[in-house]
Amino acid sequence: MLAEPALQDNNQPASSSRGSVKDYVHRHLYYDEGSSRKKHLDKLFTKMIAVDMEPLRMGEREGLREFVAALDNKYVLPDTATLTNKLLPQMYSELKVEVMKAVRESETLSITADMWTSTANEGILAITGHFIAKDKLVSPLLSVIKVEGSHSAENLAQVIDDSLSSWGCRDKVISMVTDNLSTMLNCADLLHIKHIPCLAHTLNLTVTDSFKVKGLAEFLSKCKKIVTFFRHSTLASEKLKQIQRENGNLELKLLQQVDTRWNSVYYMLERLRIIRQDLTLAISQCERAPENLTAEDYKIIDGLITIYQPFEVATSMVSGESYSSLCIILPVLKGLALKLVDLASTDLQDLPNAVLNCITESVNKRLKPYEKRSYCILASLLNPNYSQISSRQEKEAVKESKVRDLLSFLEDPLPTSNPTSDAIIDVRQYVEKPNIGHSENAVDYWKKSTSKLKYLAYKYLAIPATSCPAERIFSAAGQVLTERRNRLKSKHLQEILFIKQNFKMFNDKV
User: Fold this and answer.
1) Does the pLDDT value for residue 394 go beyond 50?
2) What is the DSSP-derived secondary structure letter of residue 258?
3) Residue 152, CB-side half-sphere exposure with 13 Å CA sphere
4) Is the Cβ–Cβ distance between 130 and 109 less than 8 Å?
5) pTM to 2 decimals?
6) For residues 63 and 80, what is the distance between their CA atoms, to the nearest angstrom?
7) How would you label 75-95 residue by residue, b for 16+ Cβ within 10 Å and e otherwise?
8) Which candidate, 115, 46, 158, places its Cα nearest to that of 473?
9) Would you state the pLDDT for residue 446?
10) 143 phi, psi to nearest 5 deg
11) Distance between CA 449 and CA 437 in Å, rounded?
12) Cβ neighbours for 333, distance < 8 A, ≥ 6 positions apart
């Protein structure tokens, strides 16, 4: 009898055949995992999640998956596990390589640091770096760290030291910009890093000193009651919009004061003044409306706006990241001083006049010390927009600072050619040049220069005037760590914020 063929042997090819057909169909229905098209789309999706602060589960939303399938039915959005365990870490690692390369190639860099408490009541520290890379000012996020234990100066110093060491830049850091809290000042001392107090924070303290002027709190309270009424009453809000439409004006909402931001007072008063006529009509037609502002009140508002406006402009100027900001501190402070002198000769109401006197005293107390800070003076001198120092105070400050090593010999006769005399000539030629236009970029000026001062310029022009770069990280973090997403791991938070902050600056090879 002939032996029966083995079923397993005969069935195995059939099974393989069916598997091959299934794989074949799958390959034609969807992109292979290794296909360049899928990798490209995965990268774009991962970038979108980080840059736009989208939920990590976004790829599992039915409506979005249907929409993507309609655009390209061969692509399937990655699920949450793939995104968090593979795609985000991969993009973070690739981007970190590029940032690390730029950091290690830099001669010097400065950092900003700030602490934030999350919705989960966790202390989080952000550190940003600032330096010139390939003749361009960059400010990458270096670390977002969950701080365990006490938030003492000693603990924070250790955390920052470990972070900078991991980046290989510990010995390159020349300055640290933070708020004026004693913890951060002591932290910088422990790290032996030059501390520069955040000018935006100092400006905030300067202006808020004026809020203690007798009568101002009561006046602002009267303004806030009006704002609160229209923001909380739907009928009142609609009535104001209706009147604005009928008068052909923009439909502008009233803005409320926020206790933690002084400029919210300025914005509130400014908006009240802008919609004064429409607001007066709306109040007269609304039941239970608060007392309206009088003509005398609006004169007080005009005076307060005139006083606070220069400080709002100054805060905005020194808080930018795309241009050198430390180098504009002295010109900005000089501009403020001149504005205050001009205002002292104007006819102000009693309350604005008291505010002006208080804020002038606060400027002398809090802002004058910046005029003697060597880093501020050097940065201003190396800024071709403002290289010619003219004020008496600034000249005296120059004599008292390290900059005397740079400029004390400018009045001496030029010696015969040697390295020292070449440096003297270099400095003299630069100082004697006229200032460039205010719209021109200081870094672009030095990029084209062959002067030996270029190294010093890059060193000091990269220092930020404020710790706003670190603070802005937490504005983004607040969008990620919401009440509904307060269990997000610190690792994923670091990855998302790192990509969001750094992708545009270092995306060439990622």
Assistant:
1) no
2) B
3) 5
4) yes
5) 0.81
6) 16
7) bbbbeeeebbeebbebbbeeb
8) 115
9) 86
10) -150, 145
11) 16
12) 314, 367, 370, 371
